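Lab notebook, bench 4. The sequencing result for the construct came back, and we need a structural model before the next group meeting so we can plan mutations. Quick request posted to the team channel:

Model the 3D structure of this chain.
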Amino acid sequence: MSRPLLAAVALAAALLPLPTDAAGPSFDCARAATSTEFAICDSARLSELDVTMAALYRRAAAGSANPDRLWAHQLLWQRWRNICGGDAACLARRYEARILDLAPPGAAPPLGDGPAVTYRIRDGRSERVYPDGRIQWKDLTTGRVGTILPDGSRSVTMHAQVEPDTLPEFPASASAWVAALEAPLLETVDSLLPAEFHDDYRAAQAGVALPDRMFRHVDSIRFLSSE
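Done. Here's the predicted structure in token form:
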């Protein structure tokens, strides 16, 4: 097991006591029915990862203000995991990623130096493209978000069930000040996107009122700077 993964498992064990004599995963291997489930049941390492992930999920669900949404994300992750079939190395990577997703914010250790997440603008969306082919996207116009898995399946996009963030109209006398404020925001967006997508980003903002455009810049920075 890799050093970062050992750290993740140790973190989970510290957060939630895990059975030390568990011989299998968190589910009943007598009911295993897929190549993925058989592979997990046949591997001590994958079983350990599954137990750790399940414990962290229970902790997250117990403290979640929206457990239904967390469950929907868990089902999406299971579909992503199952793409591995019986490939043990692939399954280990999926579990490692989910363990870090579910660990408390700021507590998860880094996974080491691997292929970097890349960013792009495509079809009016900001996209984070992960090394395994998974894509998370955010629509530059509507703010909707979604995920595209490597097998082409997609998550259901959702609108937030709260009033959208808005900015007040700026007085005409403040136009120079606002323009000066927009410039560093655009510079920050540019620093997060490859140069080939800078013009695409600006084209997506064409004709947008200045207050909304400012908010879009901030929202884009938030999306592009997270992994």
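The first strand starts at residue 118 and ends at 122.
Will bring this to the meeting.
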